[in-house]
Amino acid sequence: MMERLDSWKLAIERLRSAHVPDWAEAARLVAEIARMSSDVTLRQAAEQALPVLRQAVDNDDHSVTLAAQRRLGVVLEVVHDLSAPRFGRRNAMPKQMSREDRARKVLGLPLAVQLTCEDINQAYRRAAKGMHPDRGGSAQGFIDLAAARDLLIHPGAHKDA
Questions:
Q1: CA contacts within 13 A on the Cβ side of 79
Q2: DSSP string computed for 140-155
Q3: How does DSSP classify residue 159?
Q4: What is the pTM assigned to this prediction?
Q5: Domain coordinates in residue numbering, the chain
Q6: Which of 97, 152, 154, 157 has the greatest CB tally within 10 Å of its CB?
């Protein structure tokens, strides 16, 4: 499948870089992609581009050829995304957040900023207005909010259990 993607990519790039693209050839290539691709996104992009490319064959209307160029560009973008190398660990689990980061998230505070006690208390008051049980919030949510504030104000007092 990868060598087919590479050949499609080269063919589309060749068509797009031509001074006057051969729209009949482009329509044939995109029809092949729509028929043979196993990727749903690429198949959809090709199927959507096909009518415009067929319309551009022997058509001198600038708006039609411009639309055909854009549609061919979309197909090329999808092919490029599928054929680009992937870096990093595949299927890796996301990094676990620390207790402090989770507390910051609960209070709606940025993760990488130095905070003062006043910043933490203001964020707590703001969040508590909507989380209080008398205001329609849950009791557990309000308790979690208070725990997050306490953890951020006294980080050394709360060791990981």
A1: 25
A2: HHHHHHHHHHHHHHSG
A3: -
A4: 0.53
A5: 2-83, 99-157
A6: 152
CB 15 within 8 A of CB 26: yes
Tell me how many degrees the CA angle 90-93-99 measures, rounded to the nearest 5.
150
Q: How does 60-69 read in b/e, with b if 16+ C-beta sit within 10 Å?
A: eeeebbebbb
Residue 23 and residue 16: Cα distance in Å, rounded? Answer: 10
What's the distance, CA 82 to chain centroid? 14
Q: What distance in Å separates the CA atoms of residue 39 and residue 60, rounded to the nearest whole number?
A: 33
Write out the chain's pLDDT in tens, 161 residues. Answer: 667 888 999 999 999 888 888 999 999 999 999 999 888 899 999 999 999 999 999 888 889 989 999 999 999 999 988 888 777 666 667 678 788 888 888 888 888 788 888 989 998 998 888 888 888 888 888 898 899 999 988 877 655 54
Q: What DSSP line would sit under 69-138, residue for residue?
A: HHHHHHHHHHHHHHHSPP-S-TTPPPPPPPHHHHHHHHHT--SSS---HHHHHHHHHHHHHHHSGGGT--
Neighbours of 150 (CB within 10 A): 15
